[in-house]
Amino acid sequence: MSSKRPSDAEIQQQYNKYKNELQQVAQKIGELESEVEEHKLVIDSISPLEPDRKCFRMVGGVLVERTVKEVLPALETNYNGIKQVIEQLLNSYKRKEQEFQQFQKEHKIQVVSKQ
What we know:
two-stranded antiparallel ribbon
């Protein structure tokens, strides 16, 4: 027996699933880009300061007193980690977008914009 063609409702459901997944990944990328900008701003602000100067850092909702030399490496580690996650999400987004485009070609889906 040959595989049966999915119904229009199933195709619509899969189409919506792809759209939602792409939107969620894009939203997460935006959130992380904002966070990485905040980290960069703080790193740039405290880098020129004396290493023994005291600063404060929020840890689990509690403001903790530290020194610049203690906080700066942690900020840089977080900054680099967030950038790596953004790269992974961008790659994931591109793969999902290609899958979506292939899905649209397979099922001959054309998007008509409403004006």
